[in-house]
Amino acid sequence: MPEPTPVPVDQLHFAMPPVHTSVEEERAHRKERLAGALRLFGEYGYEEGVSGHITARDPEFGDCYWVNPFGAPFDGLRPDELILVNGEGQVVEGSRHVNQAAFAVHAQVHRARPDVVAVAHTHSVHGRALAALGELVEPITQESCAFYEDHALYDAYTGVVVDEEEGRRIAAALGPRKAIVLRNHGLLTVGDSVDAAAWWFLTLERSCQVQLAARAAGKPVLIEHRDAVTTREQLGSDLVAWINYQPLWSRISRTF
Fold this sequence. Notes:
By secondary structure, this protein is α+β, with helices and mostly antiparallel strands.
């Protein structure tokens, strides 16, 4: 039997972010991915009452954002159930309310970061635990290095965010980074796609969990600065986040 011949590399499939030919196509894509990410967050237990949102900027109307309706469960959420909210927090498409407190933050982050398509924030357990310590994620694993010097701490807590000024302060603290720890509150991540923002939230939450577990067991060994920077450069882009997210999307998309 002859030795197997390798398949040419150009014949192997490798998923990359899609290129859309129309605004309508891109809008449908973002809404589908948004509904899928919310379903995943529900599976992972990130839902806490009516808290928690993922927003996706509309591709045509730059100051309007698709978001999950107030009080709607993440589990089983469909794209056609999402609502469109303008930058003033007014619902412009849909029949449900929006959580004004959460949207006050999301809208200001979107406005401050025109490069951002999606923003994710929920009251996840391990994110809240680290936030209660008022600390950042340390470079103690390969995954946590993606956030090395690329996430911030909002070192204040003033209650439920209901005004634009507080949202602007959070957006300013986030700056150009991919994530922020909101002290005594939780995590918030951003990305140039819904997939990237969702992946950053998922892996940041897990990094918080690992850090808390490692500290409970002993003294974590930090990865050296140069190696942490190199790892971040390899793993810290939104494209890498998009790629990492695809197995999760492939699984959750089967539930539609």
